[in-house]
Amino acid sequence: MSLAAAAGSAPAAVAAPESDFARELARIAGKIAALGEGALVRPTDTERVTAHVDAHYRRALLTSDLAALEEVEPRIDSGIAIVPHPGDLWLLKARLAFHLHRFADAARILATVAPARACAEGQTLLADLDVQHGRLSAAAERYAAVIAQARPWAALAGLAWLHLKLGDAAQADRLYAEAGDELTAKEMRAFAWVELQRGVLDLAHGRHAEAETHYARAARAYSGWWLVDEHRAELLAAQGDLAGAAALYETVVAAVPRPELHQALGQLYALMERPGRARSQFVQARAGYLAPVRRGGVHSLHHLADFYAEAMIDGAKALEWARRDLALRETFSTQAALAWALLRDGQAAEAAAWMDRALASGVKDAHLCAQAAAVFEAAGDGAKAATMRDLARSINPRLGPFHVHR
Amino acid sequence: MADHNDPNAINSIFSDIDVSAADLYDIFGFPSDDRDGGDKVLIALTFAAIPQAGTLDSDLLYRIRIAPDRRITRDADDKSLAGLFRYFDGVKKKYLSVLKPAEVRVTVDASNRATVKFMGFPGGSFTQVIDTNRSVVLKSPAGHAIKVYVGGRDDAFFNDLPGFFRSINYAPQFYHVPHTMPEARELPIPKTFLELEGNDLFNYNPKIPDHGRGVKLDLPPGPWNLTPKAFKKDAGGNFRFVYSGRDAQAGKNVNAVIVEIPLAYITATPNDHRIVNCWGESWVRKAANKVETIPDEPFWVERPLDLVDAVELDDELKAYKLVDTDGQAFADAALSEREDSRQMGANNFWLAPHFVKRLAHLGWGFGPSVTALGLKCAFDHDNSPVSLHRYEHSVLTAFPRVKKVLFQDMRMPDDSWNPKRLDIPLRRAIEIFIPNVNSIDMDTTGTWPFGRRLEDQVATRFLSVFLDMDAELKGRKYDIELLNNQALWDAAPIVPKTPPNPLKNDVPFLEEFPYLAEPHGKPGYP
Question: Number of folded domains in chain A?
Fold first, then answer.
């Protein structure tokens, strides 16, 4: 089935009744119902508490419901207060904190709860935290140590992503393939996720047909998943089929109204010169980004910096959010975001300085290089800008104006 | 959701995989009583009845690996540490380079039809698709008749597994153990056959009679270690047995692959190769392979036979991951600590040093409890009056203590195991557990340890490896059935007065193939 056909079919993000995604959600709902709210009230036991919390966490992740995910935390806290050995729940809380970009919280838990830190998942999370703080070599070493022990697919995928960002796409793809090879027929969603990453890797290098192949495998592995459709929509846009991409994004966002999806759809409409529709999507994106911030969350800071720089073209606000995100973690990603926001704000010289810091990490990414070229051009360094442009083209000869922030 | 690589953005930290059909239970094997047309061997591999008895998981592949061999000959100086390592080395060479195991490979499709492949046998390789839950007779290329059954049966293993887990203080049977606490599986309490004073975590509690038998409690805060002063006794001066004699598998079903194969099909020299070594393996399909089998192209739907023919057998196995192996009863549970990385089947010779140390660890626990019962123990525990939780960190220190356990002949209760009265040496623990295979002697009845017959109480026979087989009770030398003798327990200062495990299965075995009893309730049957 072609991607264009996929875009024109029934809304895939609203999972068909027999899809793998729908079945998994139904299983989780059944489990939640069976366990009941009494699971977190004494008398109960560790297994029931853990199953209850895990089911809510899993459902929030699958549906990408940030508010629901935030609401899992009080459940985890209740569980920790009840069970005698809450190491598993602490690990889950650390993972949740990481997911919500509360990196200091995640690090604090791992520093103080030995069982959570010692296991493979804890060590992988520490490597993930290293990445978020720009300690890429340390992260690579930690991933490698975890892999040497038990070869968990998640650590292989983490290391693959590092290689991808550092410019070794071949090694990255090998590691992704190894991660996929560790997964069995009982873990098809995880396999689909790995296939999506391999597709992203190909897309980032302009290999559209190869990306399509991986996305098709992901769809076969785990049917009905909106995340696959979202990746396919991006690919359609990269191939120049903006209308097809927008149609597919519409179906996805109807089922999963994430602000990032509204932003992507809005940017598509902007490229299609449909400003009214773009504006409507941007309004919804902004509301979605700001809602968790008003609740005290920090998960959206990076997205808000990108949103104001790319969608609203408001340099001052982009700068404000980028600085707040940088205060949480300093990595090539936040450095580059700050540089881009500074450029939008008309501060080209300072933008160039921050872009230099981002590039000093060793990251070789076509989108980043293209942004760096623009920054250096504005700062008056034409030679450096040309070098960056060439590098961007060498990495992805088909780099286009539409970019999804992942 | 995140602006970075995050595999766990789509996952919880907890496994969402239920009890697996890859969980192998037992491999039975013995010479068939039906010798019409020559010797035949019966092999039954049993595993978890998932999704249900009679319905097999189509993502699984099961292998029964079979390596015929001559009867073992012993080194003249084989009771020294050097002799021990020569033995390990010989086993390694044999399994890596000399023996080329053949196999019976079974997969089941979505309609629950089984594809059975006989591969690498001197009698010829062939493949046949059969109905499950029905005994069939297949013809090999050379005309050998092979009986096959794939489907649900009663679980033929009768044992007090909770009792065994109580004896080794295995917490997951009794408590909710978080997966971030692997150190809290076997708790640091001496292993023992008799309850220990102060072992409140595992001693029988009449207020919670089913604790460990389906009832799990939250694991209390530690520390969990215990240095007992004595075995626990009641007001009457009786010890309390950790075993109950109850059949924990009663009423439970398994799925199984059962074959009855002529020896002449397995080996070109059946008069010479009198030993049939076998072990089972479960493999789960890799995700990548499953994607390729999800039909989305007309070719896959319209020409399935072309697809089958296109797949080379070696390539088939590459599409799966090895999950579990099963050869010798209790080799995994007792000696390999149920670690996934130690699921090695015949290749467990790599674990030989660990095996010696683990046996010593068990000996420090079980040994004193054997002695306390008035029985002589083969493990040298320095006459400790109570079980100890002690690890030997060196093979050099462990070996002298376990030497007798390893090398003593496991005496049989009578000569019925050897109906031809041939000069067949008794088996020894070292030969039984390394390699981890069911080694069936075709000149015996195949009773454990010369194979494993359905009616063998192997759980109790396993415990007898710690008895001193040179000792006598009432003028009779110890044997592997001693602990199955009700009279022994009647005379012992212990409650309950029962052999550790039940003496027979909850339902009778069948007189004819497939021998294992019909499944309880026959769920999932057409």
Answer: 4
